[in-house]
């Protein structure tokens, strides 16, 4: 086995250890139910990992976040993790082009008693963000935004999100390691859709690291989450 393969195996074993020891035993019952329900869906690979959900939950609580947004819902794992972490009067503006998948998880969200916090909008997120930005009342309105959707639009989302979050608030961008492809050699064998979005993720990571309006921290949780804290 090569040194690289040994390292990858050690990372996988550590991730498994974290899930088994610290994440699954603490996973709230509604999230477990939603994760198991989603596992049978053909696109289940898209769901947020349980450690990602746990991380979002503790972050939102530390921040005392109340007014939030999510771009990219799928069946709602990160949405439910957020809804459970927010106070009773917390709000999530949630957007996805696919309502059907959201409705698959909705009964679990309703049973958990947190559906009243969610304002779901079906359709592309960008026009909704444009509409929000047009109204100055929405500037600095959000405590937290989680982006987990079309990677080729991350920079477009960032341009708008930065206007919409408060100074001191956080924007979390998911999949910034893009299945490890961001660090792969240029000629590494990659699946077609990984190769297609890789350049967008690389460009996003580069631009974000140079953006003077934010502090960042890229975490190797799930497929990589980059936290951006607005500082100006
Ligand atoms: N956060 C979700 C979870 O925890 O299960 C996973 C989201 S999944 C990786 C990405 C989602 O982005 C898909 O459900 C897809 O329909 C949605 N999406 C893709 N393009 C979009 C767009 N332009 N606007 C809004 N949502 C979009
Ligand atoms: Ca994701």
TrEMBL record:
It holds the Pfam family Methyltransf_3. Keywords: Metal-binding, Methyltransferase, S-adenosyl-L-methionine, Transferase. The keyword S-adenosyl-L-methionine applies. The keyword Metal-binding applies. GO terms for molecular function: metal ion binding; O-methyltransferase activity; S-adenosylmethionine-dependent methyltransferase activity. One of its GO terms (biological process) is methylation. Belongs to the class I-like SAM-binding methyltransferase superfamily. Cation-dependent O-methyltransferase family. PANTHER family: CAFFEOYL-COA O-METHYLTRANSFERASE 1, O-METHYLTRANSFERASE-RELATED. Methylates caffeoyl-CoA to feruloyl-CoA and 5-hydroxyferuloyl-CoA to sinapoyl-CoA. Plays a role in the synthesis of feruloylated polysaccharides. Involved in the reinforcement of the plant cell wall. Also involved in the responding to wounding or pathogen challenge by the increased formation of cell wall-bound ferulic acid polymers. This is Caffeoyl-CoA O-methyltransferase.
